[in-house]
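Weekly sync notes, structure subgroup
Attendees: PM, AL, DS (notes)

Item 1: joint prediction request from the bench team. They want all two components modeled as one assembly rather than separately. Inputs as received:
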Amino acid sequence: MAVYTEVTDEELSAFLATYDIGTVLSYKGIAEGVENTNYFLHTTQGFYILTLYEKRVNEADLPFFLGLMQHLAKRGLNCPLPVSNREGEPLGRLAGRPAVIITFLEGIAVRRPTAQHCAALGGALAKLHLAGHDFAMARPNALSLDGWAPLFAQAEAQADTVSSGLAERTRRELENLKKDWPVGLPSGIIHADLFTDNVFFIGPQVSGLIDFYFACTDAFAYDVAICLNAWCFEADASFNLTKGRAMLAGYQAVRALEPAEVEALPILCRGSAMRFMLTRLVDWLNVPPGALVKPKDPLEYDRKLNFHRHVKHAREYGLGA
Amino acid sequence: MAVYTEVTDEELSAFLATYDIGTVLSYKGIAEGVENTNYFLHTTQGFYILTLYEKRVNEADLPFFLGLMQHLAKRGLNCPLPVSNREGEPLGRLAGRPAVIITFLEGIAVRRPTAQHCAALGGALAKLHLAGHDFAMARPNALSLDGWAPLFAQAEAQADTVSSGLAERTRRELENLKKDWPVGLPSGIIHADLFTDNVFFIGPQVSGLIDFYFACTDAFAYDVAICLNAWCFEADASFNLTKGRAMLAGYQAVRALEPAEVEALPILCRGSAMRFMLTRLVDWLNVPPGALVKPKDPLEYDRKLNFHRHVKHAREYGLGA
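Output from the run, pasted for the record:
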């Protein structure tokens, strides 16, 4: 939620001169994007978002992310479309950073989604999975099973300062996940970070999906599990079955889950809760002095994990029999 | 440069329902405004800025600020126009804060103004002074002579930790300012904070002035002095006489400075440099842990003050003989 890199008006004008989108009328740093710097940009030709990639994004991954957005937009998905410069390149450099201009999407991120929003989100997620099927590039999910142990190693010694017993709970859970993690599920492009701030609505309709910078190749049902975690719990960590039902029905109306995916859903929910608990825990324990971003609470996901540990069947998430 | 107060989509929709400006299409927190929270707001009827006043703004001052903006806009000055709600009130409440919706101004803030920008700024400043002459409300300048000693008292003991000798230099300068501070100069509404980030340009023209939250009743020439400090120094604290000339000529083309104002300009420059040195010093010494805003360097204004101390006549700022 911050502007990490300041762009001067001269730098911006020079950068825009390499594009065919007019001259700048106004630009304002926007308080979105934990990973990157974003400006809202109005030119004589329209509205755009200017993104500068900060150090947390690996430059080598940018062709995958930008190519994916272009692919999905071509398939009719409402997602930001990277604008190519006069040389046909979507990726440029500005203020010492890799930078892109993407189209502006209208819509608002709902902070407290209703069941209706969850149903629409489920449908949009399934469409994303289908639209990605013929995208030629692949990117392994660095934040799945194999990534969790190294993450935990960074936080293990201090974990109990955050919550008593957290280290032991996590150790045991990681062992179980390793033992039971499913393989061979239907896979392809997943968003992998489809939290409420990355989904825009106009009224009850999804108007766009944004922030593809965790997108990767992994099991579709893992993406469903991430969304169950992000959309269907209440603030007190209770699971809202009505929202779960709505989301899963919305998803299945577009793409039916296979039996193996249904069976794996509880363990995938545990795994995805583990993923967000761990990255939040590492961030929580490593807040730099003077940080611009307030870290998110890892214990929210520890509590969700505890819920999932008691789930025996995907029905408990609201999946039809 | 931060969003201090998060506004949920439900809160925003309910707030907008009290206005006659359509329904929300998108809104994004913008990284502008050190004192307030600002959202860029797009509704079915147009573009706006939504401002939530944070604790540093005294609510009792808001009718003055909002009334002034409405007055200036009516006089043809390009400044944000507070939009009245269905009850005819510009001021509402949102997320527990006083809040207004103001019209969106196009234009970009130049980070490194040229002499041409300075000339245009001088003209815009003089127009502001003329446009304010029949505004009925008054607000004393809390950050002029009488306000400096209490500010310094908050910082004096630690001043030398910022720069060796700063406490003694400041004590001596405050005594001189008290002795020589001019009275009876032509006065009226001044902006009092017209830094480059508060002036928008489209090409070489000023397209708008914003951020009237330090506006008050004081000597016009004090506002000129603030702008000489803010616009005509280079990054190495050297004074750019070409820019000074351009700004003063731009100002005088609209409103001629009187002899008493010309004579007072050097001491007004010292005083206004003192004002920004002191507020920055206090902020510098009181950065809360986890602060979202990086404090500005007080020594920039200590160096400018040192320049002004050696000025004998307004000619040295570029004023025609």
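Discussion: The first helix of chain B runs from residue 9 to 16.
Action: AL to compare against the crosslinking data before next sync.
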